[in-house]
Amino acid sequence: MDRFYEKIPCSTSNLGAGYDVFGLSLELFLEIEARFGQRKVTNLPIQLENSLLNIESKVHKILSIKRPKNLTWTLNSNIPIGKGLGSSASLIVGILKIVSSAHSIRLSDQELISLASSIEGHPDNVSPTILGGLTISFTDSDGNFKAIKTSIKEFPKSVVFVPDFSLQTRRARQVVPSEVKLSDAVKNISQTNIILESLYSKRYDIMQYAIHDKLHENYRANLIPGYTQVKDKIMNDGAYFASLSGAGPSIFAFVPEDFDPEGAVYKWLEFGVRAKCYFLNVYLK
Questions:
Q1: 85 is in an annotated binding site
Q2: What is 3-149's CATH number, 3.90.920.20, 3.30.230.10, 1.10.540.10, 2.60.40.60?
Q3: What predicted TM-score, i.e. pTM, was given to this entire model?
Q4: Is 13 labeled as ligand-binding?
Q5: Which of 99, 164, 280, 282 has a beta carbon 3.0–4.6 Å from 155's, enabling a disulfide?
Q6: For the segment 102-117, what is each residue's pLDDT rounded down to a tens digit?
């Protein structure tokens, strides 16, 4: 019986000012397997099963191949769903890799990024999931999704605070305005460059000047109880950098080795939110 297996990392995106551009791969994984034999999905709640089968259908359609009737899917994932850690992007990439392998279709990384992004709707989580490390996503002159992987090999310690509620990406995108002031765009451009310089030069102390996104965080903060106060607590407790993880509601932070997350967890409790804390390494691939 043919067996196809992929282990796919999660990701955080935006890093504050790098809205829809920056993506960072993290060592929290989804494992997905497909076997030819019987048509079924194992070990999944119905909502996730429906999501998997819907994505599988889209993948077969986008690859212009017939959907087999005898494929058994098994999925084990440690990636929280609806928390801003790219769970849907990881699932799309995993299914796309397996289906293309099962049909002996060779896809380059850029082809994978383009196809997966067309299903996901944006490339900022898809790109680091495929390339690893810190990625910069963009569209070329023909409107095709593309990405480059930065040459940064070392990153400070990272931590993700994951609250006990979910936030749909669609809802989080709806509150972001379609037009912004020129001065706000300029501020974001400067902050994205500060982030890159900080990581390249390992001058992590200058990241504190890049935590004031003007394009999306202020609008999404209204959907997340206590977000501003918890982010402030994380920074006051010594973090180098903190921002929404993707569309939220989780908070991502770069921190020194001796960082204690307990204060931020208790701060969120003041707003009725219980949060788990994940210390994660960057997945370089």
A1: yes
A2: 3.30.230.10
A3: 0.93
A4: no
A5: 282
A6: 889 999 999 999 999 9
